[in-house]
């Protein structure tokens, strides 16, 4: 009987199929052989299914590893083999739910800060220049009030 998990090269596989399904073989043997060949064909077409079943628990634990009892444990499957398995599954048209969720894009811009905010500084300066006459009047008033308080204090001290 054929082992359904065995993976044969295509040429040997076709030879085996021809031998088992040739017209002069017995009917019972042909039926059993056809079932075995169908299993082998499925295994040959989808060898990643067995690997996926084997490493399913490891893949659900994370991409790089996981914390267990306060210690970091790497996955039981290497990153290269995980990537190969992922590629096989995706090329077969299946979905791969074991990828981590994507992080948000970085919003920090590159370049010198002075170059980026110079326009904002000019706008702020223009707004402040419109307020400048009032600011000067307020400053003169505060300075005059302070001078008056000092004069009154000097008169009281004498």
UniProtKB/TrEMBL annotation:
Protein name (Swiss-Prot/TrEMBL): MRPL25 domain-containing protein
User: Whose protein is this, by species?
Assistant: Brassica rapa subsp. trilocularis
